[in-house]
Design brief:
This protein is mainly α. The protein folds into two domains: 145 residues, no CATH class; 334 residues, Neurolysin, domain 3, CATH 1.10.1370. Helix content is 63%, strand content 3%. It contains 21 helices and three strands. A three-stranded mixed β-sheet has the order 1-3-2. A hairpin with a 2-residue loop joins strand 2 and strand 3.
């Protein structure tokens, strides 16, 4: 027993270290790597991915886990939790050949570079052949995992354990209908018809300054985290005390870098507050689902970051950096602008109301691809048709449309639904927090985020993978995923803003 326990914990520690190396390679590629380094980087990433997978599925590792699994009654509660999770994960991983992992890693590394090139040239054809290979690989992967039900379930389960196409179609059907109805009501409002852009531009230096202020206020420790720039903002963790976040400073979009920084800092705070001590470098020190992970970023970005108390705190910072441009902009006008509903082409720039429609669009396309209902080459046209159907706008080019996200280049098919799941969870969590802490708005206005962070640590962060995401939400909020709470939040907020 002791020999098996020692081996299992030692193996997890080394796998965690290799995972950190893989994360560092990926972070470097998306931030500082010279463009021509991509071929060798694809080989480096593929080798690391193969080594990790071979260690995970090794017969020796599996035999030690089986030895412990048959003696669960003799283990401590913590050891039981680790062994049970490991057995589930490795049983799934053992279905996948190592050479497949290597092929997928090489394919996606080259695909990311092709995606960047396609965006630069505004030409989907540069990327489409790479995406075809990825879709074929994803279908092959589904054959290995082979969960009952829809083929897409085998992909979705990697990101949101236990979730199915059937459940999401039911939830998204309700949400899509409600969001479009709210949007149409807002469009009929005189306030909507008369809303205007506020032309305030800040230097990159000012953007950086404000972004650093907000992550400091959020209590993201600078000795454990850093902020850099990438085409698409992201968060990645190299170790227990090393998390990297990125943003993008677009001079034409005043709030993009700010909100993407708040969003990614929410992810980073979760990463840095996973279970440590006896669970350090184990399978438990991780999020049980990407939907729950996304709830943390959307909680900070939307529930906190788009609230009136938050802007009573941060409006002065923006005004200080560009006072001469703010002379004719009142606080109320600025708050309305921050929460302005305006259907946009780009998901990461979407307003709080229409954001989920962007994600539902991607979900519908991904399911269609896996069902062979249409080809990769038809995606640009289908994308544009769905944008018109849901948002009433049509992209002018591929960059505004099908090329805007990096996720498909990384093989992340089944990932997008977690953005909606996380958004719904965030609304549920904030509703519960507000019920338990009546002073929450005054704390936000005063920049006192300590109680919020402590509440999230106590109700979400500390569990890691000790429980499933749905169970954590049920324990905290009294019920699982409930999009009606999110819809009610939107109705209350935007009926007031647009007087509808």
């Amino acid at each position: 027993m002791k020999e098996s326990l020692d081996f299992v914990y030692k193996e997890q520690k080394e796998l965690s270290t290799l995972g950190g190396i893989a994360a560092l390679l990926g972070w470097d590629q998306m931030t500082y790597m010279p463009k021509l380094g991509v071929v060798e980087r694809s080989e480096q990433s593929a080798l690391i991915s193969k080594l990790i997978h071979e260690r995970v599925i090794s017969e020796k590792f599996w035999q030690h886990i089986q030895n412990l699994s048959t003696n669960l009654d003799n283990l401590s509660e913590n050891d039981k939790a680790v062994v049970k999770r490991l057995e589930e994960d490795i049983e799934k991983s053992r279905k996948i050949p190592s050479e497949f992992i290597e092929r997928m890693s090489k394919t996606t590394t080259l695909a990311y570079q092709a995606w960047e090139e396609a965006r630069g040239k505004n030409d989907y054809n540069v990327f489409s052949s790479h995406l075809e290979k990825i879709i074929d690989l994803e279908k092959e992967y589904c054959g290995y995992i082979n969960l009952p039900g829809h083929k897409y379930d085998s992909l979705l389960d990697d990101y949101e354990e236990g979730m199915t196409v059937e459940k999401l179609k039911h939830e998204f059907s309700f949400l899509k209908k409600e969001l479009i109805e709210i949007l149409e009501k807002i469009k009929s409002s005189p306030i909507y018809e008369n809303q205007k852009e506020i032309d305030v531009k800040l230097s990159e230096e000012s953007h950086r300054k404000i972004c650093n202020v907000v992550i400091e206020k959020m209590q993201l420790p600078k000795e454990k985290a850093r902020l850099d720039v990438s085409t698409h903002p992201f968060t990645t963790s190299m170790g227990n005390d090393d998390v990297r976040i990125t943003t993008n400073f677009r001079r034409g979009d005043l709030l993009f870098s700010f909100f993407s920084t708040v969003h990614e800092a929410g992810h980073a705070l979760y990463e840095l507050n996973m279970p440590r001590d006896e669970f350090k470098n184990t399978v438990i020190s991780d999020s049980p689902s990407l939907g729950l992970h996304e709830s943390q970023s959307r909680f900070w970005e939307n529930m906190i970051g788009r609230s009136k108390p938050f802007w009573k705190l941060f409006y002065p910072f923006f005004k200080e950096e560009s006072a001469h441009l703010y002379n004719n902009v009142t606080f109320d006008e600025w708050y309305r602008y921050v929460n302005q509903v305006k259907p946009s082409m780009i998901r990461v720039e979407a307003d709080e109301l229409t954001y989920c429609l962007h994600v539902i669009l991607r979900f519908e396309l991904e399911v269609g691809l896996m069902e062979d209902k249409f080809s990769v080459n038809s995606l640009p046209q289908l994308w544009n048709e769905k944008m018109d159907e849901m948002l009433g706008i049509t992209p002018k080019n591929d960059v505004e449309g099908v090329l805007q996200d990096m996720h498909w280049s990384g093989g992340s098919i089944g990932y997008f639904p977690t953005y909606v799941i996380g958004t719904i969870y965030a609304a549920q969590l904030f509703k519960k927090l507000s019920e338990e802490n009546p002073n929450i708005n005054s704390e936000i206005e005063n920049g006192e985020f300590g109680n919020i962070l402590m509440w999230l640590r106590e109700h979400i962060h500390k569990y890691g993978r000790l429980m499933a995401a749905d169970e954590i939400i049920k324990n905290t909020c009294g019920e699982g995923l409930n999009s009606k709470i999110f819809v009610n939040y939107l109705k209350d907020k935007y009926s007031s803003l647009y007087e509808v």
